[in-house]
Specification:
InterPro entries: HotDog_dom_sf
Oligomer: single chain
CATH topology: Thiol Ester Dehydrase, Chain A
Structural class: alpha+beta
Largest sheet: 4 strands, antiparallel
Number of strands: 4
Strand order of the largest sheet: 1-4-3-2
CATH class: Alpha Beta
């Protein structure tokens, strides 16, 4: 995976465009509904000069696995009431400790 590279100067007011390119795709070993996609993105100025490039990997949902299913899964995994606090252990609750 290449690191972030800057190849030309940019200035305030310049118009920049991002051009992604898919380099590879593989199945995720831990998430069967997703693939790992390797991308290279090139930043270009309005005249087409490449001013930066960087690589990254992303998890992408496979076809047929809608985002709605992921939201439903996430929502069900939340504690009742949607609170983000650390749950109390039963011993703490009996002792009246928060």
């Amino acid at each position: 995976m290449e690191r972030h590279r800057r190849t030309a100067s940019v200035f305030i007011g310049d118009t920049l465009y991002a051009e992604p390119e898919v380099l590879a795709k593989r199945k995720s070993t831990k998430r069967p509904t997703q693939d790992v996609v390797t991308l290279r993105t090139m930043g270009k100025e309005a005249d087409g000069t490449v001013c930066m490039s960087f690589g990254r990997r992303m998890l992408i949902l496979k076809r047929g696995h809608a985002v709605d299913h992921m939201v439903e899964y996430w929502w069900r995994s939340r504690p009742v009431g949607g609170h983000r606090h650390r749950p109390r252990h039963d011993a703490q609750a009996r002792a009246g400790m928060a």
